[in-house]
Amino acid sequence: MKYCKKCLQPDTRPGTKFDNHGICPACNYFYELKNVNWDERINELNEIVDFGQKNNSSGFDCIIGISGGKDSTRQALFVKKQLKMNPLLVCLSYPPEQITKRGTDNLSNLINLGFTCISINSSPRIWRKLMRKSFFQYTNWCRSTELALFSSVPRLAIAYQIPLIWWGENTALQLGDTKVLGKSGSDGNNLRASNTLSGGDFSWLLDNEIQKNKILQYIYPSRKDMKKANLKISFLGYFWKLWSLRDNGLYSALRGLDIRKEKPSVIGDITGVTALDEDWVTLNQMIKYYKYGFGRVADYVNEDIRNKRITREQGIELLKRYDGKCSRKYIMSFCDYIGITFEEFWIQVDKSVNEKLFYKVDIGNYIPKFKIGIGI
Known about the structure:
Strands 3-2-1-4-5 form a five-stranded parallel beta sheet, sandwiched between helices. Strands 6-7 form a two-stranded antiparallel sheet. Helix 3 crosses helix 9 (about 245-255), helix 5 packs across helix 6 and helix 12 (about 295-305) runs antiparallel to helix 13. About 45% of the residues lie in helices and about 10% in strands.
């Protein structure tokens, strides 16, 4: 395990590759921004807007996948007010047991800002079954839900004949998942290659009870279907100088977004602007920490270091204190939902703890072998 020489990105992040100087892709992209010809990017942005408006046969000239959170709120307002487009918002809704009141309030706030939104609701029984399957097969309950999240938007775009989809950040450039790289920095048509979608493979979801026709919203459209629909996915974050967790959070909070108030030691989040619509992403970030040696706080810290809000040394202290933290109450809530005990949860997590990175003292008790900022 090695850390980026500029920020605190570890080379254990799936899909990332440091350069010969030990610098992560996200840092290289950030420091190259000062040399960007923004007039050229604006021209590219205008061409994409023109594409959406010329292919407007439904009354909506683009689609934005949203949760009602910080990123989707800022994107929706930018597209409507700055780009003068008429977006259709698409939200994949969680079951009642999972979505928070904060989440429903934030979605209502976004709609009240003047948008039309379509909510997609999956079968709660299948949702729960696949979440449980994801947890025990991959120690990642999000594996199935993220398939539905990423797939439902392009499937609806094809059905409604709206060929332009705006997505948020390009994870290849802004986080380092280089598998996502398309033909340009704005090109999102290679999202299927992300670590989350794994090429769009959904075969592991199927069994005797769950057949393909019951999980259509979990199936990412084929390249053939996307080409036939002339579908274009573009990253809005590529066209913004200030795209970050904090910037998007502040912008959206000033426009009615309700954020978390819990302590960082409870949620593993130092600003409270992520995972607003549900609580279980918090425990998945904890599990990610035990798999790869970093969690949600690392994303904040790395952005803050690049933006010179904090030093690398201050970032190290924040990671020591808060990265990978999660309250027991969120774990218990998740366990109750999928029907397992607290002990069964940790037995499964224990199987996925990276023994190259952690000493296993006992089930649920792990000590890092790595030193933050240095590695192993």
